[in-house]
Amino acid sequence: MASPSVTFPLPSELSFREGAALAMNFPTVHFALAHRGRLKAGETVLVHGAAGGVGTGATQVAKGMGATVVAIVDSETNIGVARLAGADHVIVAGPGWPDEVRSHTGGVDVVVDPVGGDYFTDSIRLLRPAGRHLVIGFASGDIPTIAVNRLLLKNVEVVGVYWGGFVEHDDTIAAESARELARLAREGFVKPVVGGSYPLADAATALAAMEQRSASGKLILDVVTMS
């Protein structure tokens, strides 16, 4: 049973499937950007894994907070997904992706990173002075490391983001995120990208799609039949 402290009404602008896609990802990215990243209107946000559930959520929340969003996707087939989420610039990951980011922005203020791996160091280099790199996960399977002199020389931060762990200490953060996400839904910024829905019996198929990176947005399991 869900705790009342993390249970909130579904915004009327969203369907039940979109509501399922809202859970976890959107509170996480709101906590990441508003609290851990201290995002301000007018700043530029770089989003890795921008066609996934966390990435599309981060794009929408950042846009709602007044930021410019540069989205990094792993293939051309996912460009449309990132644009649908509201990204201002979409770049396909490849050897020259940092130069493409610089050509659009000259640098970024906040990095949303649910991927980790090889892109970590280049993302640190792209940060403007006083920039913040938000570590949300390691979808690549590789946990990166950094020489901390890079942080000192540019006055930048690498910030951990673990919404679930923080809520255990202060559950008021969940209510705040719910209010803000409902407002952003009313204003048209937040509308979760549902990449597909599966009957509960086909959960293994959904997991395989995620493992094979053929999924985009958030995949949903239907526990009951929906009309």
From TrEMBL:
InterPro entries reported for this sequence: ADH-like_C, ER, NAD(P)-bd_dom_sf, Quin_OxRdtase/zeta-crystal_CS, Zn-ADH-like_protein
Know the name of this protein? NADPH:quinone reductase-like Zn-dependent oxidoreductase
Enoyl reductase (ER) domain location is 2-221
Instruction: Please indicate which superkingdom the organism of origin belongs to.
Output: Bacteria
State the organism named in the record: Prauserella sediminis
Q: Which GO terms describe its molecular function?
A: oxidoreductase activity; zinc ion binding
First and last residue of the signal peptide: none
